[in-house]
Amino acid sequence: MPGIKFFVNLSVKNQELNTEFKTAINETGVFKVISQEEKQEPDLLICELGENYEEELNNLQLFLDKADTTEIFLVSKRSDPEILIQALRIGIKEFFPVPLKPELIKDALNRFKKRYEKLQHTTSGSSGKIYSILGSKGGVGTTTVAVNLAVSIAVNQENPSVALLDMNIIFGDVPILLDISPKHNWGDITQNIERLDEFFLANILTEHATGVHVLPSPRYLNNHPSPTPTIMETLLDLMKNKYDYIIIDLGQSMNETALRIVQMSDLVHVIAIQSLPCLSNTNRLVNSIVEYGYIDKENVKIVLNRYLKKGMVSLSSAEEGVGKKLSWVIPNDYSTTMSAINSGKPLYQVAQKSRIVKSFNDYVEKLLGVENIKRKKMWFF
Ligand SMILES: Nc1ncnc2c1ncn2[C@@H]1O[C@H](COP(=O)(O)OP(=O)(O)OP(=O)(O)O)[C@@H](O)[C@H]1O
Ligand SMILES: [Mg+2]
User: Fold this and answer.
1) Which CATH code of 3.40.50.800, 3.40.50.300, 1.20.120.80, 3.30.300.20 fits the domain covering 129-372?
2) What is the number of the ligand closest to the CA of 341?
3) CATH class of 6-124
4) Going by C-beta distance under 8 Å and a sequence separation of 6 or more, which residues neighbour residue 190?
5) Is the CB of 329 under 6 A from ligand 1?
6) Could you tell me the end-to-end alpha-carbon distance of the chain, in angstroms, rounded to an integer?
7) Atom 10 (ligand 1): residue with closest C-alpha?
8) What are the extents of the domains in the chain?
9) Does residue 142 line the site of ligand 1, with CB under 6 A?
């Protein structure tokens, strides 16, 4: 149920009132009443105040002191000022007099949602970094770099907060490379953009064993609205609130949406290989996005993939061809990349000690800063 975001514990003994609350709450599609047996922590507690209101309010105060996130709403047949004042004093957020009015319940739930979202915003900030990966040609290793960069960041963090977004419509390979079968893709977001918030997002992404949260592309066109620049902007703004690092496989697309992503990126990694036509493509690509003001040149990183010492083009000729220093040189390693693809595992899980994995780890160390690296023990092999 991707729409449900808040769980409500309804502690209202009066059957009539209980049913009225339940109906109004469940109709929102966002809040859901949970039973006492459900293990789910409630986000909101709705209580009916009985005769012994002083003692009950004291107990609620003790409860609120311990629970730092749960809010309490009260319903009572009595609404004398002294009850209201005491309720307010202990931090009760809403008070419903009887008879109940469904629209007042909905308004109160809406206010709860707004308070929650504001809190999320202020506590998380909007500090996530967007690292896009752009191919200068098909087949140069864009997806390999995107997937393994995301994994490398995740495994080099104690509490990884990494998302991987695949923008290759129909041809997105990310789930294959990670051997996952995500239930959702960003087509679900373009279809439900008005519902998009952090909770919806959390239900849409699929977590891989490395801690990377994956948002794949649609496998079929399926009539979902295409990801417009505005939709992507909304999505990425939200992802920046939720994740520390967002890695995007842009494939080779240079449409309006991809350009908006480039514009929003902290760094764009352009993937090239050791071939003159590819290096000259890279040069034109970098100049285009820089000259049109989508990104500053210093934030474009050139990645030379599949590097062979004995290759036809030397590193200095490659830099000359691109017109920019190489930021990262990834060795050619056919057997590790092939066995990674064939087993649906990231390179890190296939050959932790290989040169190619070391290359990813070294780059991540450079990218994040040594002080931010905490290699965690990998338990998922
Ligand atoms: N460093 C490397 N060494 C050897 N092989 C590599 C390396 N990087 C990628 N490859 C191989 O190159 C092939 C293409 O890789 P990948 O799918 O990542 O490229 P792509 O640019 O995303 O392709 P597409 O344009 O189809 O999306 C794969 O078989 C992959 O294993
Ligand atoms: Mg690809």
Assistant:
1) 3.40.50.300
2) 1
3) alpha beta
4) 224, 225, 226, 227, 228, 231
5) no
6) 31
7) 141
8) 6-124, 129-372
9) yes
pLDDT in tens, 177-216: 999 999 999 988 888 888 888 888 888 999 999 999 999 9
Q: Residue 216 is inside which H or E element, if any?
A: none
Output the CA 183–ligand 1 centroid distance in Å: 25
Ligand 1 atom closest to the CA of 144, numbered from 1: 18
Which atom of ligand 1 lies closest to the CA of 251?
27
Among protein residues, the one with the nearest Cα to ligand 1's atom 29 is 338
DSSP annotation of 312? S
Rounded Cα gap, residues 134 and 303, in angstroms: 10
185-198 residues labelled b (16+ CB within 10 A) or e (exposed): bbbbbbeebeebbb
User: Do the beta carbons of residue 98 and residue 77 sit within 8 Å?
Assistant: yes
For residues 257 and 229, the answer to whether their CB atoms sit within 8 Å is yes
- Rounded-to-integer distance, Cα 92 and Cα 94, Å: 6
348 within 8 A of 151, measured Cβ to Cβ: yes
Give the percent of the chain with pLDDT over 90.
Answer: 62
Question: Quick check: do 6-124 and 129-372 share a fold?
Answer: yes
Does the CB atom of residue 354 touch ligand 1 within 6 A?
no
* Nearest ligand by distance to the CA of 347: 1
> Which residue's C-alpha comes closest to atom 26 of ligand 1?
139
pLDDT of 378 above 60: no
Question: Nearest-CA neighbor of 46 among 79, 70, 81?
Answer: 70
What is the torsion angle, in degrees rounded to the nearest 10, for the CA atoms of residue 320, residue 322, residue 325 and residue 329? -110
Closest ligand 1 atom, residue 332 Cα: 3
Q: Please, what's the largest Cα pairwise distance for the chain?
A: 88
Residue 11 CA to residue 190 CA, distance in Å, equals 38
CA distance 344 to 19: 50
Ligand 1 midpoint to CA 263 (Å) = 25
246-276 residue pLDDT tens: 999 999 988 989 999 999 999 999 999 999 9
CA of 92 to the centre of ligand 2 (A): 53
- Beta-carbon neighbours within 5 Å of ion ligand 2: 142-143
Give CB contacts under 8 A, 24+ apart, made by 35-39: 36/9, 38/7
